[in-house]
Amino acid sequence: MSVPDNKSSSATSAFGKLAYLVIDDFENFRLSMRHMLRSCGADNIELVAHARPAVQYCTYNHVDVVLCDYNLGEGKNGQHILEELRHKKLLKRSSLFLMVTSETSREMVMGAREYQPDAYLTKPINRTMLDKRLGSLISQRNALLPINREIDRENYPEAISLCLQALTRLPRYKTWLMKTLGELYFLLGDLSHAIKVYDDVLSQRELSWARFGRSKVLLASQRHDEAVESLQHLIAGHPDYMEAYDLLAEGLERQNKPGLAQKILERATDYSPNALLRQKHLAELAESNQDMDTAAEAWRRTVNLGTHSIHDSPQHYLALSHTLCDLSEGDTGIEGAALANDAFSVLGNMEKRFPDNDGLALRSQIVQCRLYAGQEKVQKAKAMLEGIRPELKNASAPDLETSLDYAKTLFRLGYGEEAQALLGGLAEQFRESPPTLRKIESLLDEPVGFRMKVKARRLNRDGIKAFESGDLKEAANIFTKALEMIPDHPALNLNQVQVLMKEYEGNTSNKDLLERCQQHLSHLAGLPEQHGQYRRYLALQRKLKALNL
To answer: How far is CA 148 from CA 55, 93, 141, in A?
Structure first.
């Protein structure tokens, strides 16, 4: 009678206590994996071919180990499944997700790694490889199970206590324990303990996750310059650490450097192009930077990546159509017409993809009105507008974005008073929401197309530079040109008033300058109190009154 191999029998026992899910579109591979798992001691094994049954199974059943092929034929791939399971929180912290693949392209690896699989297994797989790789992961899982259970319960203080106890008891897992400790302290808002954990690790060895964690704490502590410098150092040494790019972009935005933040995200999307949320962030940032070409490309990628993603949204289609609309406006040549047609196509695809969303058809028609107007098909645009007016009036309360979009279209088609009345009502309704008021202000201040808006903003910057350098005549001429484009723009009018007042200080006999100041201030007589320029408007009014005495 032979003596039993305790190590082998304990490993078999560990395999046997867990529930497994194998996802692969080839039946032979699924059966082969089941055979190998059984030979390792596994018993509870579910086999599925595609994403939908996999997600459905995880919705109603606890799974300890997922072995998922990356390529699953048409539809969602392994990255999409992992993304959805993480997003829906269908996997516990203690669950293991292994990506199985024969593909090793950088795009695949970088894209899948964004959602942190526990390991990669490269085909072909044999029993020895599976036993060794998965057995090691299961041993770690079992050792750290009490900590992960408390994290799943969001009992972070208890999880921290267990981590601290395990540091002496489980020295082989020190790296995991320190990383988890730092994350838990951060989640609790205990930034001083979090940064101490990361400093302790970095004092012994330069590890990417510790450098990243420390930078995250610095950013949360409002130490933006230190955080940005730290992240730049991290990326220089580890250009494939994708989370660092996202955090660096956030840091640069907080430093009010949106242009540099955009460049960082552009670099990141070159490295890892399949991350939908990063493409979306890039699109939004480029849009705010008035870089509509980059915004359009990033929105297009966002839409395409959304085809099989849990993060798919009609808002991505609308954002792309808005950007294409801005780019095509006023360009009736071949390129402009192609951009407009592309926008029409995007809107059509959105309506087909989200047929149960009642408000999308209306949003689509509002954008189409602007597209027609931008291609100088004004009568067609107005006819469409008349068709949707009753729907907007009968609607109990169109949502904010629909109302803002409608106001934008009214401005484009020459119904300025109606647009102003609509925005005035919204300003009153959302008077306690500064972000919403800023959106409303932006539309009221610049009710013109994208290209004219960019020109006016450039002129405004040039006018400010001329004023600061003391060239008052040049500044006044520049602001006059800008005001010809946007006559009622509050900041432009007030900038011109300041220039004229400065001129008057050097030539008090020229009362015409004061009359011109009054004309510009009269343009702003209806400026609402909640507008960001209102206090400045009152101050300049008082100053003008004093100069007239």
So the answer is: 22, 6, 9
The secondary element (H helix, E strand) that includes residue 299 is helix 292-305
Q: How many CB atoms lie within 10 A of CB 291?
A: 19
Segments making up each domain of the chain, as ranges: 6-141, 313-447, 450-548
Phi, psi of 317 (to 5 degrees): -65, -45
The set of long-range contacts for 506-513, using a CB threshold of 8 Å and a minimum separation of 24, is: 506/472
Residue 343 carries which DSSP code?
H
- Token pair 């949003």 is found at 363
In this structure, what DSSP letter does residue 302 have?
H
Per CATH, which fold does 6-141 belong to? Rossmann fold (3.40.50)
Cα separation of 326 and 301, whole Å?
A: 18
**Angle 452-454-458 from CA coordinates, rounded to 5°:** 115
Q: Quick one: pLDDT at residue 7?
A: 44
- Three-state SS at 192: helix
Number of other residues whose CB lies within 10 A of the CB of residue 385:
23
**507 neighbors 530 (Cβ within 8 angstroms):** no
d(CA 305, CA 314): 13
Helix (H) or strand (E) run with residue 121 in it:
strand 119-122
Cis peptide bond upstream of 124, omega within 30: yes
Torsion of CA 178, 180, 184, 185, to 10 degrees: 20
Residue 422 near residue 410 (C-beta atoms within 8 A): yes
Paired with 22 in beta bridges are 47, 67
Q: For 30-66, what is the HEC assignment? A: HHHHHHHHHHCCCCEEEEECCHHHHHHHHHHCCCCEE
pLDDT of residue 383: 95
Task: Give the model's pLDDT for residue 107.
Answer: 65
- Residue 319's pLDDT is 97
Low-confidence residues in the chain, pLDDT < 70: 1-12, 103-113, 394-397, 549
CATH for 313-447, among 1.10.287, 1.10.3860, 1.10.3470, 1.25.40? 1.25.40
Tokens of 424: 């005035």
Q: What is the pLDDT of residue 116?
A: 81
Among residues 377, 312, 307, the alpha carbon closest in space to that of 344 is found at 377
Assess contact for 485 and 456: CB atoms under 8 A.
yes
CATH code of 450-548, in short, is 1.25.40.10
- Tokens, residue 417: 């008073």
CB atoms within 10 A of CB 308: 19
Does the CA dihedral 65-71-73-75 come out positive or negative? positive
Closest C-alpha among 112, 465, 505 to residue 275: 112
Cα separation, 523 vs 132, whole angstroms: 77
Residues contacting 202, CB < 8 A, separation 6+: 210, 211, 214
